Amino acid sequence: MTAQKLYDEFRYQWFEPLADNYRELLYVNEADYAKQAYKILSWADIAKFSLVDRPSYSFYKNMEGDWKQNPKGGAGYLLVLISGIPYWTDAVGQIPFAVDTYRSKQSITKTVQTGIEWGTGTLTGNVDYSNEYDNYFVLRGALFASKSFTYKSKSSGQTYPAIVVEETYHPVNPLVLGEAINNNELMQYGIWKK
Question: What is the 3-state secondary structure (H, E, C) of 71-118?
């Protein structure tokens, strides 16, 4: 069975235990010849790409923010290898979208809702309230962003805009992006399960 068939027909995944279609990862072929099947990255690479402030429209399919297709991201690969674990590229691609959306919405719940509504990256995409991994990866990105940025409103001293919002960046260890969503996070923010 090929990886493409696992992805297309079964939607199996091994990185979010609380999501549907979870199967425990038992073995990863570490031989050099197997590595050509992956784009090899680190969580620091994912964080670096995610922290670039982009216009929201850049996350549509095949645009600059579409991590799955961007040469600095998934580069069109089906799978990426991060810290020795393979991930579906479209799963990890939800993280930059979520970080950018959080910076706009400044709310984990609103970021997750936006991911449910726009996660396909198309204008005509379907709303996705499924318990599949993509919503979990939007939540991973939103949680990372909530730790990375704080916001403060203050008067501008002008009529328009009367209030300005200052964003402050706080470096966060990018390895947190590799942590699966836990039960508490799912109960608090997993609005697709409500």
Answer: CCCCCCCCEEEECCEEEEHHHHCHHHHHHHHHHHHCCHHHHHHHHHHH
Question: Rounded distance, CA 108 to CA 113, Å?
Answer: 9
**Which residue range(s) make up the domain with 121?**
3-193
3-class state of residue 135 by DSSP? helix
Q: What is the pLDDT of residues 63-85, one digit of tens each?
A: 999 999 999 999 999 999 999 99
3-state class (DSSP) for residue 20: coil
Q: What is the pLDDT of residues 16-36, one digit of tens each?
A: 999 999 999 999 999 999 999
Domain count, the chain: 1
Q: What CA–CA distances, in Å, run from 117 to 31, 34, 111? A: 40, 36, 10
**DSSP letter string over 165-189?**
EEEEE----GGGGGSPPPHHHHHHH
Distance (Å, rounded) from C-alpha 194 to C-alpha 180? 20
